[in-house]
Amino acid sequence: MTTLTTDSGTLTRDALAVLQPGFTGTTAPAWLLAQLREGLSSVGLFGRNIESAEQLAALTAELREARPDILVAIDEEGGDVTRLEARTGSSFPGNLALGAVDDPELTWEVAHELGRRLAACGVNLNWAPSADVNSNPDNPVIGVRSFGGDPQLVARHTVAYVEGLQAAGVAACVKHFPGHGDTAVDSHHSMPRIDADLSTLHDRELVPFRAAVAAGSKCVMSAHILLPALDEALPGTLSPAALNGLLRAPQSSGGVGHDGLIVTDGMEMQAISATYGLERGSVLALAAGADAICVGGGLADEDTVLRLRDALVRAVRDGELPRERLADAAARVRALARWTGEAGARVNGGSAPVPSSSRPAPTGAPAAGHAADDASDVGLRAARRALRVTVSDDYDPLASPPFVAAFSPLANIAVGDSTPWGVAPELERLLPGTRTATYGKDAASDADPSGLVANVLDAAADRRIVAVVRDVHRHSWMADALDALIAARPESVVVEMGLPQSPPAGALHIATHGAARVCGRAAAEVIVGKGAGG
Questions:
Q1: Which of 149, 298, 427, 459 would be 434's cystine partner, CB 3.0–4.6 Å?
Q2: Contact 45, 74 (CB under 8 A)
Q3: In sequence order, what are the residues at sequence separation of 6 or more whose Cβ sits closer than 8 angstroms to the Cβ of residue 315?
Q4: Concatenated DSSP letters for 171-219?
């Protein structure tokens, strides 16, 4: 039981402790350091804060000078969603690629190496992995961020990821509870709704979350989704039935049994801020059972922190938010910070959990005696194994520089529009002189794709064409253009770097199960005949 006090200073410190704000710049601004000394206990990092591993390590060291027990959080899923390598693309394939391989040992290795790199940079909380079951292939926000559409597959890889990451001393945060995989709307823009019944929720969405909590995941992130079977009025992030009820309830009584930290998804997302407002939404989230308020993907200044701090203090004094609830939330934040310090000390002391013949291996961990390759290539090994290659009998590997036509959809906000993707840079490395151009929906006519295809053919001239697509099943303009291109140039190569749902097309078709840089490298190797695929 938390010891309470009416001291206003303690109340203010607790209000600051539950915030996880972002900031701009690659060094810590003065206001952030001041708020850390006043009681702020967490920060969230984004691509805008990172230039290199060395710079990031210096930044986190600067933060720890102001607050040694700080939680430094990041949204580093690997694959399409990367902050560490936002400028280049990730060295690790994402969840869908790992699910396609379906080797939990490999997933453990990838997560552990990713966690090792985060820890080396001073990051100790990762808002990952996505535990969403991608049951709706048309989902606009999850897709390749999910391990797949089968709940049991998603569960075993979520467990492997959590255990691998936390064995490196970095707390995992499974998301997006109670499950974002059956939505047709992106919560960055508006409120998604899932009309599944409770039986479906328990048999599908909740399976990976129960497994992750049983495996010891330190954190769960809530989703801004409305699930009327659970709560007719409030989205998951604001729903006592979802958080204090279902997520906290013991598994023996049908709940998920999570006793660790609950953090919200970004509160400035339109599903919350446009409906409830930032301050009101944050108060409701804490009252519902959330412990940490994530804000800063878009709002990243001192004014936001002070507004939220004051809103929480005012809500306690006005009786809208129980003082005990705020104190409990702050205590959970501080408890996770202590765990990360202890876990980091164990890892640095060489006593991090590792599989051994005298101890059962964690689910998904390399078994005793497993001869893993050098950790630095675990991402490439995984990306190669994830490829699904369909090749015609008369396909000739490329021996001269091709023309790469990248058919690019509007970027998912979680992914961002500045992270490079595709195969052109890797083909340029293997075949210097490779040329490329990008084509979007604005270059295609809904009625006639011939104009876009004519542009591609003109630009390609006599070069072989490599068409790179992403979720072609979700974009009719892309599907039509691809069909017309293959009809005109059947010898073309097609690389699908999103969710593979359409039949293979082209003389060589490669499904990479994600658009990370390392996936592009694995595909390029196959295109030039230097790789076999998975």
A1: 427
A2: yes
A3: 283, 287, 321
A4: EEEEEEET--TT-SS-TTTS--B----HHHIIIIIHHHHHHHHHTT-SE
CA 80 vs. chain centroid, Å, equals 8
How far is the C-alpha of 214 from the C-alpha of 303, rounded, in Å?
A: 39
Token pair in block for residue 378:
């675990």
Q: Is the pTM of this model over 0.85?
A: yes
Spacing of C-alpha 174 from chain mean position: 9
Q: Give the tokens for residue 311.
A: 């809103």
48-107 pLDDT, tens per residue?
999 999 999 999 999 999 999 999 999 999 999 999 998 899 999 999 999 999 999 999
Count H helices and E strands in the chain, helices first.
17, 14
Residue 73: closest CA among 168, 171, 199, 202 = 171
Instruction: List, for residues 406-462, the tens digit of each pLDDT value.
Output: 998 866 555 555 678 899 999 999 999 999 999 987 766 555 677 889 999 999 999
3-state secondary structure of 370: coil
- Helix, strand, coil share (%) of the chain residues, nearest 5: 45, 10, 45
* Given 112, 188, 224, 258, the catalytic residue: 188
What distances in angstroms separate CA 10 from CA 19, 34, 320, 323, 331, one per listed residue?
15, 17, 18, 11, 12
- Is residue 102 part of the annotated active site? The answer reads no
CA–CA distance, 44 with 61 (Å, rounded to integer): 15
- Of 256, 274, 206, 264, which is closest to residue 238 (Cα–Cα)? 264
Provide the H-helix boundaries in 39-122. 53-66, 95-101, 104-120
- Is residue 370 part of the annotated active site? The answer reads no
On the question of pLDDT at 3 being above 70, the answer is: no
Residues, the chain, total?
534
How many other CB atoms are there within 10 angstroms of residue 530's CB atom? Answer: 10
R_g of the chain, CA atoms, integer Å: 24
- Check 132, 182, 265, 291 and give the catalytic one: 265
pLDDT, tens only, 264-273: 999 988 889 8
